[in-house]
Hints:
Elements: H1 6-11, E1 17-19, H2 28-37, E2 41-44, H3 50-63, E3 68-73, H4 79-88, E4 93-97, H5 105-110, E5 114-119, H6 122-130, E6 135-139, E7 145-146, H7 154-164, E8 169-172, H8 178-186, E9 191-194, H9 196-199, H10 208-216, E10 222-225, E11 232-235, H11 238-248, H12 253-260, H13 264-270, H14 294-313
Parallel strand pairs: 1-9, 2-3, 3-4, 4-5, 5-6, 6-8, 8-9
Antiparallel strand pairs: 7-11, 10-11
Helix pairs in contact: 2-3, 2-14, 3-4, 6-7, 8-14, 11-12
Amino acid sequence: MFEHNSLCQLLQIRYPIIQGGMVWVSGWKLASAVSNAGGLGVIGAGSMTPDLLMEHIQQCKLATRLPFGVNIPLIYKYSEEFVNICVQQKVPVVITSAGNPKTYTEILKREGIKVIHVVSSTLFAQKAEQAGVDAVVAEGFEAGGHNGREETTTMVLVPSVVRAISIPVVAAGGIATGCQMLAALVLGAAGVQIGTRFIVAKESSAHENFKKLVVEGKEGDTLLCLKKIVPTRLFKNQLFNRIAQKENEGATSEELKLLIGEYKPRLGMFEGDVENGMIEVGQNISLINKTQTAQEIVDELIDEFQKVSKNLTNLK
């Protein structure tokens, strides 16, 4: 079905589905399961030490013979070490984010590694193409976690980026279903990146309390905040309420950093304190109502994609 899809050809995957490299969620078990299911599984390095990333890469290699990737936030203190590890371990794909794509793209590509950069605007997409990346992820503000300051939606961002660059564009932000995947391809994307839906995968390392929160989530349960630091979409829990109160009182960026602390994301997403920890999650939680294996998630996405495609064909 996707034999001639540019993203599938670039990454050597069966389906144009990339699993988001989420901190505290996307370890080797999830990445290998998604790759084995036909997508591109991604290890989220942003919550790891170099030694831990090395372990996850090696375990992933044992669990799958198919391509997988590593997501490296370029602002992270270990980013250079992570790049060196990916080169040493010959990781097939590196997805960079939160930084200048020029920094490591040439080094990675010289080693035969495919490089994808996450962007939140058309301007950043053009700069990423100029830096030599193989593809970009155009992430709308519906996405969980760190977001663009422009607050551009996926529906607007994706076609804008597609018009502006010539390399493959991957749509991201709020995508959780096969019909949304089809819509993204109609907008000109070569594929989709899906994060929040894979939080509830049985192979993800998200705490069970976090998974339960996603399954029970509804419209309006998330909101963009922390714009004085890095705009971030969070679930509205007790910590979120304290952040919102501080922001309304005019708190400085330093005061906000002190409030959230270094380990708040771990506390919520990995340790399960879903009231006092940061819960980075997308708007699409209202579309997710059950836990599944990664294989079941991918199968359901493709089944719905095919059914909706057939229905559209019948409209001719």
